[in-house]
Amino acid sequence: MDHHTRTMQEFARQAEQTVTALAFTAPDLTERLLTALGPAATGRILDLACGPGIVTAALAHRAREVVAFDLTPEMLDKAQQRCGQAGLDNVRFQQGQAERLPFAPASFDAVVTRLSIHHFADPAIVLAEMVRVVRPQGTIVIADVLSSDDAQEAELHNALEILRDPSHVRMVSRQQMLSLLRSSGLTIVSEATWDVPREFDEWAHIVNDATRTQPLRTVMCRLAQAGMDAGIDLHLAGEQLAFIHRWLLVVATKP
Predict the structure, then answer these.
(1) Which of 24, 38, 101, 219 shows the greatest Cβ crowding within 10 Å of its Cβ?
(2) pLDDT score for 239
(3) Distance of CA 165 to the CA centre of its chain
(4) What distance in Å separates the CA atoms of residue 244 and residue 113, rounded to the nearest whole number?
(5) At a CB cut-off of 8 Å and minimum separation 6, what does 132 contact?
(6) CA 151 centroid distance within chain
(7) Virtual torsion, Cα 10, 14, 15, 18, nearest 10 deg
(8) Which fold has domain 3-149+166-197+245-253?
(9) How far apart (Å, rounded) are the C-alpha atoms in residues 71 and 120?
């Protein structure tokens, strides 16, 4: 099975859960993205890997036009439902691969994406496409979860993520993410990091596959008991298995 097919299958399964999951719906995360856009928030915006349209709808209240783009038809259906219920008529929905965006060069004032970079087999190709379709001096905002700077911790963290969701490829460290952006020719304007506490049950619920998550719980409990925190503060709080996801939000511009 190729990676795009695997990703579509996984997110078709997850579509219903992402509509209500706090990891996606948290208002403070959406507001961070809107604020990061600055004046570009009123222009034409591409919401890349839009998922269930939570960011899309928020953007559309301010933007001239939003294009909601995703690989998975079920996610686009959820996005379209959300925007329709909100009475938003300035959103266009399009399905496709992020590595081959079907848009003309310099056709957007801004590109936004969240929780997507770690799902791309080759993020550099996707970043090149993002740079291509944004206008000169346009804004690119990327928000994603990071891995540890320690290579062994990052390897363990990513292995756990893949066991939960095989469409996961690799979460990168802060320095690796910034290097990716600079290598794409972008100028970094600002960055912010923050920690989001997670509990195993809500994290596992999103993927909707107990045949994976039940054995994964056992593995992660044993790791926590052994003091191996995978760079995510993996620990037991009473009977609850918990950890943190460290987010990075980067604002960059195209020269």
Answers:
(1) 101
(2) 85
(3) 14
(4) 21
(5) 101, 105, 106
(6) 22
(7) -140
(8) Rossmann fold (3.40.50)
(9) 11
DSSP string, 123-192: HHHHHHHHHHHEEEEEEEEEEEE---SSHHHHHHHHHHHHHH-TT------HHHHHHHHHHTTPEEEEEE
Place of tokens 């839009």: 50
Residue 176: pLDDT over 90: yes
Q: Could you tell me the sign of the dihedral formed by the alpha carbons of 112, 2, 231, 233, in that order? A: positive
Give 49-66 pLDDT, tens digit per residue: 999 999 999 999 999 999
Counting residues of the chain whose pLDDT is more than 90, the rounded percentage is 97
Question: For strand 108-114 and strand 235-237, is the pairing parallel, antiparallel, or unpaired?
Answer: unpaired
Measure Cα distances from 70 to 30, 121, 171 in Å.
18, 15, 20
**What average pLDDT does the segment 76-104 reach?**
98
Q: How far apart are CA 95 and CA 187, in angstroms?
A: 29
Sequence ranges of the domains in the chain: 3-149+166-197+245-253
